[in-house]
Design brief:
It is built from three helices and three strands. It is an alpha+beta fold. The chain has one domain. Strand 1 and strand 2 form a beta hairpin. The longest helix is centred in the middle third of the chain and has 10 residues. The N and C termini lie far apart (29 Å).
Length: 68
């Protein structure tokens, strides 16, 4: 089931944060934990879930991601 979500990952307490948006949270979360997703999360080892929020539309999720 597709459910837009915003999520934040870190590699440790007070470490670098990564914020992302997805419509398939469980699959995306697994990919980050397995190291399949390249880029920032792989380089810094961001695998620890800090927070996630589900939204009714992808647009709402993207707007939330861009908030301070």
């Amino acid at each position: 089931m597709k459910q837009p979500a915003v999520y934040i990952l870190a590699n440790r307490r007070n470490g670098p944060l990564y914020t992302g948006v997805t419509s398939k949270f469980a699959a995306t979360r697994w990919q980050h934990r397995a190291g399949i997703v390249g880029g920032f999360t792989k380089q810094y080892g961001c695998k620890r879930l800090v927070r996630y929020e589900q939204h009714s539309t992808m647009l709402d999720a993207i707007i939330r991601e861009k908030e301070d």
